[in-house]
Backbone:
């Protein structure tokens, strides 16, 4: 059953069913030393300034909202509230208020992802990596994951495709130096070294997405002139660029010498990527 992201965690716990006592919201004090972070935490970067501010708030007012935990072999694992846990630890608290839920590994991974998506805490690359982790570990298809977390399949596919970009570009995206729009434009460049060169130029010169798209279009025009004796019509070049932007992948319109017939080639990287493109084609 699809779970909309507008729901709070309490509603999501109820969706998991009554079998595992997930409706029990009894708050208890748990020793900080017995708690460890969620090994499936999608978030990789925590703002130290925000943690410091939260620490000071906790020192003045205590923890206002309990952390959500699950029992593990060696104590407890965090399901929701790692920022509060880190701040409490920094504040020197021996115990924290917590609600303990009985959750499977799958439920824990799913809830950790949904909590971060609800709070919009994840970077683009953290979100992409989280989707891929759940797909791999829980053997979900992109369509199944989309239904579980209330996203569209093309949304999942577009994020997962970012993991195919070179590591240097992924770092730029993770640090906010390149946007999702920049990343999608770079996916239309086949050569990894060219992707890196364009990304570096975009970061150092502060390109907008439109500037990057224009640069890539000119690059593809030059490649076309070098490899084909027949010059493409300006209208065809514009249509190719529009199609690349729509499908988020490389698109080529190839004409015969007399220009009367030809073919359109749309590149896809996987079956899920093909399904994403077919969904776009089905849209009216």
Residues:
């Amino acid at each position: 059953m699809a779970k909309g992201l507008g729901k709070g965690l309490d509603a999501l716990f109820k969706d998991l069913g009554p079998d595992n006592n997930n409706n029990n919201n009894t708050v208890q004090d748990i020793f900080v030393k017995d708690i460890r972070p969620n090994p499936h935490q999608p978030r990789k970067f925590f703002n130290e300034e925000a943690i410091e501010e939260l620490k000071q708030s906790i020192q003045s007012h205590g923890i206002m909202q309990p952390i959500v935990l699950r029992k593990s072999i060696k104590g407890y694992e965090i399901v929701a509230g790692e920022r509060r846990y880190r701040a409490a630890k920094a504040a020197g608290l021996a115990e924290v208020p917590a609600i303990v839920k009985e959750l499977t590994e799958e439920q824990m991974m799913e809830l950790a992802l949904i909590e971060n998506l609800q709070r919009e805490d994840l970077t683009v690359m953290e979100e992409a990596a989280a989707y891929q982790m759940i797909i791999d570990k829980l053997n979900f298809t992109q369509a199944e994951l989309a239904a579980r977390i209330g996203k569209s399949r093309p949304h999942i596919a577009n994020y997962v495709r970012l993991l195919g970009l070179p590591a240097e570009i992924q770092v730029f995206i993770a640090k906010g130096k390149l946007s999702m729009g920049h990343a999608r434009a770079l996916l239309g460049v086949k050569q990894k070294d060219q992707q890196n060169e364009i990304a570096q130029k975009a970061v150092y010169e502060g390109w907008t997405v439109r500037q990057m798209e224009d640069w890539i279009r000119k690059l593809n025009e030059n490649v076309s002139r070098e490899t084909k004796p027949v010059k493409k019509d300006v209208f065809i070049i514009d249509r190719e660029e529009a199609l690349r932007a729509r499908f988020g992948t490389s698109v080529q319109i190839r004409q015969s010498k007399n220009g009367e017939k030809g073919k359109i080639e749309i590149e896809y990287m996987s079956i899920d990527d093909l399904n994403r493109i077919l969904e776009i084609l089905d849209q009216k």
In short: Residues 1-9, 15-20 have pLDDT under 50 and may be disordered.
